[in-house]
Amino acid sequence: MYQPYPTGGQPPTAPPQMDAPRPVMMAVRLMYAGAALTVVWFVASLLSLSAVKAAVHKASPNLTAHQISNLGTALVAVSTFLAVVGLALWILMAWGNRGGKNWARIVATVLFGLFTVYVLLSLVQPHSAFSLLLVAFTWLVGLGAALFLWQRDSTAYFRAMSGRQG
Q: Pick from 79, 141, 150, 155: CA 20 to 30 A from residue 110's CA?
């Protein structure tokens, strides 16, 4: 009988399936909390739109009503884009890390680093106390998730799920 492909040896084995350890699950829960905070941020940005328009009009009284309206439309578009991307990233990172994907752990850590830079840059911009509190709380959630992802039990889980030893 003709076999088009030789067979022999063992077929490749899939990484073992195991439950994520407590630190990974804590990181995943924090990522879901980050997703919820993204929704809160989006709603707050929509609710504060009229106050932002009023502040822009006060700071630049030479702008026409049409220009201020266009600025409001742009702010809604940018806020919507950032909220959708932020929500998708929080959820994608939660799913990937829960599944033991090491790339997700690395990407989540890099995203936390980028968010840290954003937070530091936003401190020099005018902001409301609520906005500052929301950003600070979101940063703390990200910090907690990143710390949980790099604990010893987490590292062992990611190595086991990727089939690496050591």
A: 79
